[in-house]
Specification:
The protein has 100 residues and is an alpha+beta fold. Helix content is 24%, strand content 23%. The protein is built from three helices and four strands. A hairpin with a 4-residue loop joins strand 2 (56-61) and strand 3 (66-71). The longest helix is centred in the last third of the chain and has 11 residues, at 76-86.
Length: 100
Amino acid sequence: MTISNAPTLFKEKRRKFGKKKPEPAPEYSSVLYVQMEPQEVRLFRYLLEARDNLAYTSVIDRWASVLKLVFSPQQKEELIEHLSDMQASVNFKIVPFSES
C-alpha cells in the first residue's frame, strides 16, 4: 500500500441528513394554557422539557397553577401528542381562552 492510495481506502462515508427543505420561520408563536394542581407543576415542566425545544412555559397564576405554553405553530401536532402522553403521569387540563 502506498501513501497515494491511502485516502481512497479509508474514505469516510458522508451522512446524508434529511433532504427535506426547512420550513420558513413563523411570524408569531402559538400559545396554550394548562391548569393543574400546584404539586404537579414541577413534574409537568420536567416532562415537557424532556422534549427539546418543543415549548417553553411561564407561570401565569401561581395560586391557580395556570401555565402558559409558547410553541411554534408548526409543532402543534407534536405538542398535542406529547401532552396526551404526559396525561398518564400528570393530571392537567387545557384551559380554553378567546383571542381578542
